[in-house]
Please model this.
Amino acid sequence: MLTTAGEGEVLTVPDATITVRISGRHTGGTYELFEVDAPRGEAAPPHRTPWPKAYYVLHGRMAVFLDGELYDLSPGDAITIPPNASHTFTVHTPSVQFLAFAVGEVMGAFFRDLSGNGMEALARFGVTQ
Model:
């Protein structure tokens, strides 16, 4: 499956716009890839998700707070977030664009539910603070 620039399902969540670049439907449910565009501003409070993921910064700068440690990320930097680790991010530049890679296909389902139904999606997907 190929997605070219400008293609992909676009989802709006409280702190970012997410483009589904590779859906779990196209990988047999083994992984997903998202392009995340987040403006400077209030990010989600620290929270835990039951799935692992990784971020790779394309442009802009952001800080990732992960299990009590603060990591400053710039273009080319990557970080892994284990399942159930407390985490959030803060954008330091006017905006940041990064790739989010997730194992399985639950993250895409969560983003779709969050985009369509708001914060009530958190409990349905085991996202806790």
Observations:
- The mean pLDDT is 94.
- The first helix runs from residue 106 to 117.
- The CA atoms of residues 12 and 36 lie 10 Å apart.
